[in-house]
Design a protein that fits this description.
about 425 residues; mainly alpha; 22 helices; about 75% helix; Glcn_transporter
Length: about 425
């Protein structure tokens, strides 16, 4: 997918690029700088001149510019959902309707719905965490149990969301965003069900919630549930026009239009500018991360990695489609970022998958599932955001990792079973 300039990066260079990136992220260097440093070192160690290395890095970043524009546009919808109180209303309504007797299921579903309608996963965790802690105190379930329900419920929703990871996968394979979203429904539902099963099994493990910090909300300013959900529904309706009636409405238009529509329905147009500013601020960090991811992808895609993987598949007699879930999962384990891993894997392996008969939809869906499944590791932001949101010490937060990993594996397996043979 990236134009080869005049040389190829050796496998040693790829390994150095990935290893240095991971080490720097673990050392708490900002991920964009870690990825750029890894890409630069990998290119030079891999046999390129400095000029060729920079050309590859810039070419990779340029390739992801369309995805960055769509992610920035999505900031309008994100800002409206979070700042207007719509996200909080959606979560509260689901939990209230399902009742405390099904508390863990309600928490899982509420975070799934939030990410599925366009609230990025960290914001969904921050939004639902106070509600989950309040329910945990009343029902005497453990802090660990509600954390699993929130984080992994949000991850399941992320598989079928219009969030940056899905946008990056759809953009790389040049297919409608809604196609990848709808293809993720099966893995998401199974992932959410397994999340509830695990959370229920461990509801007595770990510390209990004895006190919580009450957050005051102005009920008079809260929108109704239908008004709160109107923006995401409008955006999804617009995105669905292409598969339904062959009218293409790009996510660059549909997602901000959904945000504006939601603000109008909630009668909050006077606050729209501040909502958009907030959304832009939230998405700017992700956009920078995507551009930096492109520099690393530019090095990897112009390496001998593809040939080595093809040789390995032939040796072990594995189907070519297995590249998609494995690459998404590996990059997620390396970067602990669903967006970065989806962008890198799609651009590095997309052409190989398509050339060998794997459909664009199957490739994008399996890569997205792998990318989403392992963004919970300690060198990523979600780990620390969730730890702070649930007031857990490091030791207790680390106890959740095995459960989160198993749930991620289930999501990847279900996606591979459904789409691994979709040629």
């Amino acid at each position: 997918m990236v134009r080869v300039i005049n040389s190829e990066v050796s496998m040693l260079g790829v390994l150095v690029a990935m290893a240095l990136t991971i080490i720097l992220i673990f050392r708490r260097i900002n991920p964009p700088y870690a990825m750029m440093a890894g890409a630069l070192a990998g290119g030079i160690v891999g046999g390129l001149s400095l000029a060729a290395t920079l050309d590859f890095m810039i070419g990779g970043a340029q390739l992801l510019t369309p995805a960055v524009l769509r992610i920035l546009a999505a900031g309008v919808l994100v800002g409206v959902l979070i700042e207007s109180g719509a996200a909080n209303v959606i979560a509260n309504t689901i939990v209230t309707k399902m009742g405390e007797t099904r508390a863990l299921l309600a928490i899982t579903v509420s975070t799934l719905v939030l990410t599925a309608v366009g609230v990025f996963i960290a914001a969904a965790v921050i939004t639902v965490a106070p509600i989950a802690l309040m329910i945990a105190k009343r029902t005497k379930v453990s802090r660990l149990s509600v954390l699993i329900a929130v984080v992994c419920g949000a991850r399941a929703g992320n598989v079928m969301s219009p969030n940056p990871n899905t946008i990056a996968a759809a953009e790389s394979f040049s297919i409608p965003l809604t196609s990848v979203m709808f293809a993720g429904v099966g893995p998401a539902v199974v992932g959410a069900a397994f999340t509830y099963f695990i959370a229920k099994k461990i509801n007595d493990k770990g510390s209990k919630v004895n006190k919580i910090r009450e957050e005051k909300t102005d009920e008079m300013k809260q929108p109704s549930f239908l008004a709160a959900i109107s923006g995401p529904l409008f955006a999804i309706l617009m995105l669905s026009l292409q598969p339904l009636v062959d009218i293409k409405v790009d996510s660059l238009l549909a997602l901000p239009a959904g945000g504006v529509f939601g603000a109008v329905v909630m009668r909050k147009t006077t606050d729209l500018n501040s909502y958009m500013s907030s959304g832009l601020q939230k998405m700017s960090g992700i956009s920078i991360l995507i551009l930096a991811t492109g520099t690393l992808a530019g090095i990897i895609v112009n390496s001998s990695l593809n040939r080595m993987i093809m040789s390995g598949l032939n040796t072990f007699d594995l189907p070519i489609s297995s590249i998609a879930p494995l690459s998404g999962s590996f990059m997620a384990l390396a970067t602990a970022s669903a967006t970065s891993s989806a962008a890198i894997s799609s651009n590095v392996f997309g052409e190989v998958l398509l050339e060998n008969g794997v459909s664009a939809l199957a490739g994008a869906t399996m890569i997205n599932a792998g990318a989403v499944a392992f963004d919970h590791l300690p060198h990523g932001p979600l780990f620390h955001i969730s730890r702070d949101s649930f007031f857990m010490d490091m030791k207790e937060r680390l106890k959740a990792l095995p459960y989160e990993t198993v749930i991620g594996v289930v999501i990847v397996i279900v996606s591979t079973i459904i789409y691994g043979g979709l040629l």
